[in-house]
Amino acid sequence: MRSLTNVNFDQMTKPDFLQYDPWPSAQVLLNALESSALITRTVISNLSKGQETVSISSNLNPPHWEFGHLIWFQEFWVHRHRAPSNPSFLPHADALFNSSGIVHDDRWQVQLPSIDILQNYFSDVTERSHAILRSGSLTPEQAYFLQLAIFHQDMHNEAFAYTWQHLAYAWPVERGPEVALLQTDSLEPTYIDMPASQIQLGSAPHSGFIFDNEKWQHKVAVPHFSISSDAVNNGQYLEFLEAHRDSGMSPLVSPPLHWKQEGGRWYERSFHQWLAMDLRAPVRHISAQDAERYCLWRGLRLPNEHELTALMLSSPANWRHSGLWEWTSSIFMPFAGFSPDPYQDYSSPWFDGSYRVLKGWSSYTPEYLRRPQFRNFYLPSRSDHFCGFRTCLA
Ligand SMILES: [Fe+2]
């Protein structure tokens, strides 16, 4: 029998999502909402006529559908109190924009409202969120769902960025200065010896907003390993490609789609611009499958989720981030004791064993989502998002 002193009354009485305090102030949320909305508005309003029409693809969403979806999400969770019986501002919004209800390919088939109607919907919903934040009486439930909606919008803003990169559209949002700084010092990787340790994986209650796949914090023993201080760069990856080309090895290995060679020189496309390749910049848009082919050729391996988390939690001098989500060899699975939060489709549908964990963040991820415990996940065949990798000695 458990002694009463071990019982956490909070956990008995409150749903998990109400234990994600401390809650940010209304002003902090207002700032986050504003900066997220500014990116969305800038991206959508700078699309030239015709650019909203994209070929059907399992990796992308039609831009205007994605815009409607992120507005609907905020309206549904924050203002309609997650009840379909509470009407939307926009007729047929649930049928059109609930990602859990409309299958992917149908997003190309449905008749979407005009862009003027969608922009009014966006202004209405954003203004209603502002009104809550200005009211001076923010409840924990409102603070949770506002954060969920803002972070969801941030993730779709990042999806706009990698979609624009994939489609070679100009990206209309100014980026921070960090992108220019992301360079390794040399073409040769340096390996950091990480002694065996115990780390805390996952997040604890009362540590601020978390996503359900981080529940709950637990100790993990990480055996000794050696990991590169920097992500693999373009020069290192080019050696791998050239070795395969010269030897006639695996036909599966080919240059990334955003690379081209002209007149003996390599170029890398950034959105709509072809730039001379910087050999010391982290290589990006590499699938986990190609990253593993690279590792095999070098006699190395990808880090697992525990190892990459241990690196991120160690000295900041060790974790030299690449400005890219970094692949791990770990399958995306729930931690023991997982239970879904109200937005049940955030993690649960993707625990089918086919997704990989990525750690870190990209240059398009807001500062407040850059946390060592954040777990991203994609199919290992994907390379369109901002992803790279670092290696461990085998
Ligand atoms: Fe979404």
The portion of residues assigned to helices is 25-40%
Sheet having the most strands: 4 strands, mixed
Along the chain, the helix and strand elements come as HHHHHHHEEEEHEEEHEHEEEEE
The level 1 CATH classification of the largest domain is Alpha Beta
What value does the Rg take, in angstroms?
Answer: 22 Å
Tell me what the CATH architecture of the largest domain is: Alpha-Beta Complex
Strand content: 5-15%
N/C terminus separation:
46 Å
At the fourth CATH level, what is the homologous superfamily of the largest domain? paralog of FGE (formylglycine-generating enzyme)
- Backbone structural class: alpha+beta
Unreliable residue stretches = 1-7
Structural write-up:
The chain has 394 residues and is an alpha+beta fold. It folds into two domains: 13-167, Four Helix Bundle (Hemerythrin (Met), subunit A) (Up-down Bundle); 178-393, paralog of FGE (formylglycine-generating enzyme) (Alpha-Beta Complex), CATH 3.90.1580.10. The chain has ten helices and 13 strands. The protein has helices at residues 9-13, 26-45, 63-79, 93-97, 115-134, 140-167, 178-181, 234-247, 288-298, 305-313, and strands spanning 191-194, 197-201, 218-222, 225-228, 259-262, 265-270, 273-276, 300-301, 325-331, 356-360, 376-378, 387-388, 392-393. Strands 11-10-9-12 form a four-stranded mixed β-sheet. A three-stranded antiparallel β-sheet has the order 5-6-7, with no helix packed on it. The chain has a two-stranded antiparallel ribbon with strand order 1-4. Strand 6 and strand 7 (273-276) form a beta hairpin. It is globular. Residues 69, 73, 99, 152, 156 line the site of fe (ii) ion.
